[in-house]
Fold:
Amino acid sequence: MSDNIKKMIGQVFNDIADGLETGSFGKKVRVGLTSFGSEHGTENLVKAAELAQSRDSSIEVVLIGPKAETELTQYEVSDEDQGYKKMEELLDSGEIDACVTMHYNFPIGVSTVGRAVTPGYGKEMLIATTTGTSSAHRVEAMVLNGIYGLIVAKALGNQDPSLGILNVDGARQVERAFKQLNENGFNIKFAESHRADGGDVMRGNDLLQASCDVVVNDSLTGNILMKMFSSFTTGGSYEAAGFGYGPGIGEDFDRTILIVSRASGVPVVANALTYAASLVKGNLHKVAKSTFEAANAAGLKDVLASLNKANEKKDDGPKEAVAAPAKEVVEEAIAGIDILELEDSVQALWKEGIYAESGMGCTGPVIMVSTKNLDKAKEVLAKAGYITSDANC
Structure:
């Protein structure tokens, strides 16, 4: 009898024994946890692993690290580098289905989707993304981040997640890209801000209240948000709330690796292990494949290419100066302008003989024009790609 067959038979008997003990006869999800590097010590991680396994009989947690006093399955390694190598070996062989770790060098194109519990209503919200780099181009990265967030939401069982875009640099370009994808057949449910003026661009209030299921942002901002949400009650040294920084997602990335911080405490690490198991049960990689297929069919690559082309054009060098038309009273504000495109938008209107001024409203940058020029100004800006055709004043 071969070693593989013996191993399979042994696993079957172990599964039967576990089923008799727990009442659950389904195949367990095996989730690894590397146990090096915590600022709170190895004991913190061992306790988290034991907690995660004890509260969910469908999970088996496997430790990868220094020998610990625990009944959990352990793979003993001498240092972090050996731990990461062992983690990849176990993932690639199928010995474990997912792994939670405190550091991993994801390739460019892969970034992580955090899962926070917001303080306003105690509601969960996915933060897309929190570590890693989806693209070297900021706006392209944020569009991809949003798709990554939708993938994770669907793998967690939310088949119609709402998408909001954090009001940071590039937000309006990202909004236009998503609306173009939506028009091309990639279904997106846009969130609505809880602020009186609404819209899918999220403010700080919306984050506290979880006005959207998935919030799109750059990964550095997302990293800060995760730290704030997870440790705002502890003074920052101990992350006590939420599910960690999440799984690395990318079009061709096929390992389920989730990140937690070295400051993450027992509750967060335990939740991250549960998060990992939920993604395995939700067929994360199958969901990712089908979502990317749908996005690509809707012209994702062309949308991203047009974003990069537009941004490269803006960086070509000094632009021809356009003289301002005769000054007039400006009473109307056109919202939906990206801060990075604000002055270019003013120049575009001047070129058409429309007097305009840039300004800053409570929701972000605005273009100020006269009432008589409002409709024409919106038409010019929409045609030039600075606003969507349905932008509100």
In short: The CA atoms of residues 165 and 216 lie 5 Å apart.
